[in-house]
Amino acid sequence: SALGPMALVLVKSLWGCPEAAHPDQWDKLFERLCDDGFTAVECGVHVAAVNPPRWVAALKTSNLRFIAQIHTCEYVDHKPAGYTDERTPFPQSVVGSRLPAAHLASLRELVQLAMTCGADFVNSHSGHDSWTVDVAAQWLQQALEVEKELGIRITHETHRRRLFWNPWQTKELLERVPGVRINCDLSHWVVVCERIFTPEHDDWWPDLLVLLSQHAELIHARVGYREGPQVPDPSAPEFAFEVESHELWWDQIVKGMLSRNLTEIFIEPEFGPPPYAHTLPFTKAPVSDLWSVNTWMGQRLLRRYRRRGLRENV
Fold first, then answer.
1. What pLDDT sits at residue 314?
2. How far apart are CA 162 and CA 131, in angstroms?
3. What's this model's pTM, rounded to 2 decimal places?
4. Which one of 29, 83, 183, 305 has the lowest number of neighbouring Cβ atoms within 10 Å?
C-alpha cells in the first residue's frame, strides 16, 4: 500500500568520513554524497563549528539539509572527564556528569551552537542511563522547555548509556512526557537486550513500535545483531534476518509518521567506523568499506520507499 505524498529525506552520516574534518574538502564531500542520492547530512556539531559560515555556505551550494548531532556532557580525550589509554587505539568517550542540571546546561549550550551552524534540527544523545524514570521524565520536561524557548526541533536518540537506553524505560518516559520527539536507532536495543525482537517471543514489541512511531522524527537505519550494534556488512547474506527484521520495524515507524501528517521522513544509514566497524586483529583494518556500506543501505532504502509511494526530497 502506498504511504502517501511524503518526501523522503535520505541523510548521509559524516561519522567516519575523514574529509569532514577539513573545511577545504566540504564542497567536494557534499558533491560526492549528493551523487549517491543523499539530500541531508548529520554530523557532530563540533565538525561544523570549526567554521560555521563556511559550513553554511557549503550546505547552501549543495542544497543540503543539516541535522546537528550533540552529546550532553560528553567528552573525548578531555581531562578530567575523559581518559585515554595507550593500550587502545580507540579513545574512550566519557559522559562527564550524572547531574541533570549539568545535562540541561550542556543541552542548551550545544543546541545554541548548532543553531549558529545552520542546523534544521538537533539530534541529541541525552542524559544518563543510571537515572531513574522519575529523574529522566523531569529532565525531558525541562528539555521540552529549552526546545520551545530556542525555537528549534530536538530529537532524543534511543542510544545506549543514555536515558532511552532500553525499550521499557523508553515506553514509560514517552507515556509520561508525550511531547518528546525521538530519533529511533533500534540497533542499540538489539544489543542491550541481546535479541532481534519478534512478536512471537516479545508480545509487547508491536505496540511499542506504534508508540515510537508517534514520536519519531528521524530513523537511524543501522542494523544491529545480538552481540553488537552493527553487523559487519548488511549486504552479506548471513545478516539477511537482521536486515529484514530492522526494515520491517522501520516500515512500522514510517507508517506511524504518515498517520501524523508529517511532510518529510528523515532516514539515515548510520553505519560507523571502528570500533563500531569490525577490524582485523593486529592490523586494525576494517572488514568492510564504510562509504560503500552506507551507500548500499541508502540505495536499498530509496528503492524500498519509492515502491511505497514516497518521493525523494530533491
1. 45
2. 9
3. 0.95
4. 83
